[in-house]
Amino acid sequence: EATPYEKQYFRKDGSRWWGLFAPRKVGDEVVEFVLDITARREAEERLRASEARLAAIFAQASVGLSEVEPGGRFLHVNDEVCRILGRSRQDVLGRSVTDVTYPDDISPSLTTVARVMETGEPASLDKRYVRPDGAVVWANSSITRLNGTDSRPGNLLVVTIDLTARRQAEAALRESEARFQAIANSID
After folding, report:
1. Where are the alpha helices (DSSP H) in 27-149?
2. DSSP code at position 12
3. Which is more confident, 103 or 58?
4. Which of 68, 122, 167, 184 lies at a 20 to 30 A Cα distance from 145?
């Protein structure tokens, strides 16, 4: 028996249709059974286009986006996550979030992830990451549990916003206010 195959045809009006052809030997004759699979092929094309659009949004987002398994291993990251962490995509993928988290922030991070996995309620925390050169960056990580196809808890979506510049500005403001207060206190 021959292998079934799909083929595209065009109608007189210019519209296309897809057929699934299944050749079968019936006696001494080969008969082709044809099934119109146009709706299925169009749905597959819409799905591919939707997945491509979602992948482009993920890649081009101005915030860090990562998919992390419940155990903490990075599965997918966008360029902004790599920039925040100061690492290449190859260096991030497969690592655990704890590998790049500032040691004092590991426990609060794990507690937050456990709560999100247990309750399904999103959570957010400010935490520090450590770059390979030892630099520490502040970020806000918003964590959402994704449900799997069977509605059981799946992976985590983490939205990360770099807070380093804001934290530095706040520290500079506090320092300036302290200097101003010291000057004001020294004036009779």
Report:
1. 38-60, 79-85, 89-92, 97-100, 103-119
2. T
3. 103
4. 167
The CA-atom distances, in angstroms, between 35 and each of 5, 14, 27, 96, 98 are 11, 20, 22, 48, 53
**Nearest partner of 65 among 163, 157, 164, 162, judged by Cα:** 157
Give CA 118 to chain center in angstroms.
20
Report the pLDDT value the prediction gives residue 42, as an integer from 0 to 100. 84
Longest dimension (CA), the chain: 115
pLDDT digits (tens, 9 = 90+) for 110-121: 999 999 999 999
Nearest to 138 by CA among 155, 161, 121, 119: 161
CA gap 141, 154 in Å, rounded: 18
Distance CA 53, CA 139 (A): 27
Measured in residues, the chain has a length of 188
